[in-house]
């Protein structure tokens, strides 16, 4: 048994469960709060757009293709598959709890969800459409025109309205009530001894320096490979691609660890296939520490307690295209 496990077991034997629970309010991680929906019609419109593949040139790729809400808001691929089966250049981060991020994309080039939402539509490697074509498609569909007018009060649809609706829906994709959150709120039975020992290791080893706050990450940019360089064939430069500063090279947005058991593979290049591998690499490269197999397993056990209630999504019925709706071009390069 590790030192952390022994201390924890001794504390429990002495009846210190209540002390652990009361101290939870001082922890570096805070619980996820349920979404508060203020504009339900806008959220419903955003949900339809999120699932509508007609925003892509092929008519086959939707936001949900790479951010599958049945798979932790990701696609479980090293890099997503885009138009014409092109391989993406970077691992697709989860959309769940993304509203808690300091910025969007690994390099933070989008300041918020609204700015992020327009990027994949026009990216030739992703949805391969254009904002103009996407708006032409939506404007040609009477059902969408009526719904946009109801939500925004205008006869014509614009890309600003599209991204605003998408962002409104994505802001609802939070995952409260993880077992770790239950423990933070005072449920003394929510975690096992092994999971609590893993959390102690997570804190005492320094993981919380980057993975903290409500999202357990997502609130800072950090260099990948602090203690020793990270070796990868991936060409992503990180924050330097946005700032142009060499000092920002290989600085990436720290990913959220919420629902991390669902969002494999890990890292910007997707090279860590399992949580065990990810914990090992992070320990060595970021902390200069080699975890024993038992320590690694304890941390993994804790990380699995961060899986919250997944969004209960009823697949929307999309309004049908009309005769003048631009047709999909899945085979045109």
TrEMBL record:
Heme c 1 binds at residues 63, 66-67, 83. Heme c 2 binds at residues 207, 210-211, 282. It is an enzyme of class 1 (oxidoreductase). Its cofactor is heme. One of its GO terms (molecular function) is metal ion binding. Residues 41-142, 193-307 form the Cytochrome c domain. It holds the Pfam family CCP_MauG. Binds 2 heme groups per subunit. It is found in: Periplasm. One of its GO terms (cellular component) is periplasmic space. InterPro entries: Cyt_c-like_dom, Cyt_c-like_dom_sf, Cytochrome_c_Peroxidase/MauG, Di-haem_cyt_c_peroxidsae, MauG/Cytc_peroxidase. It comes from the Bacteria. Its main location: periplasm. Residues 1-23 form the signal peptide. Keywords: Electron transport, Heme, Iron, Metal-binding, Oxidoreductase, Periplasm, Peroxidase, Signal, Transport. Its EC number is 1.11.1.5. Binds 2 heme groups. This is Cytochrome c551 peroxidase. It comes from Achromobacter agilis.
């Amino acid at each position: 048994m590790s030192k952390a496990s022994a201390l924890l077991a001794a504390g429990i034997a002495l009846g210190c469960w209540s002390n652990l629970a009361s101290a939870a309010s001082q922890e570096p991680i805070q619980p996820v709060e349920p979404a508060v929906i203020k504009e339900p019609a806008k959220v419903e419109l955003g949900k339809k757009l999120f699932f509508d593949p007609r925003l892509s040139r092929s008519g086959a790729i939707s936001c949900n293709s790479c951010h599958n809400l049945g798979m932790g808001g990701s696609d479980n691929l090293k890099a997503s598959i885009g138009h014409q089966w092109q391989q993406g250049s970077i691992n697709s981060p989860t959309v769940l709890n993304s509203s808690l991020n300091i910025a969007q994309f690994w390099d933070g080039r989008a300041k918020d969800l609204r700015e992020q939402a327009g990027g994949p539509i026009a990216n030739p490697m992703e949805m391969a459409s254009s904002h103009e074509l996407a708006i032409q498609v939506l404007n040609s569909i009477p059902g969408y025109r009526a719904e946009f007018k109801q939500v925004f009060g205008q006869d014509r649809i614009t890309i600003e309205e599209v991204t605003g609706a998408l962002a409104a829906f994505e802001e609802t994709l939070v995952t409260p009530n993880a077992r770790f959150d239950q423990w933070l709120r005072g449920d003394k039975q929510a975690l096992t001894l092994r999971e609590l020992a893993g959390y102690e290791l997570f804190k005492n080893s320094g993981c919380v320096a980057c993975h903290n706050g409500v999202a357990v990450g997502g609130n800072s940019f950090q260099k990948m490979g602090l203690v020793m360089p990270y070796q990868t064939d991936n060409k992503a430069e990180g924050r330097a691609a946005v700032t142009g500063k060499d000092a920002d090279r290989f600085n990436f947005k720290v990913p959220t660890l919420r629902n991390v058991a669902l969002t494999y593979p890990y890292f910007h290049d997707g090279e860590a296939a399992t949580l065990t591998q990810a914990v090992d690499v992070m320990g060595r490269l970021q902390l200069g520490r080699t975890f024993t197999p038992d320590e690694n397993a304890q941390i993994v056990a804790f990380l699995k307690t961060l899986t919250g209630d997944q969004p209960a999504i009823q697949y929307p019925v999309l309004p049908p295209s009309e005769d003048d709706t631009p047709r999909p071009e899945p085979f045109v390069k």
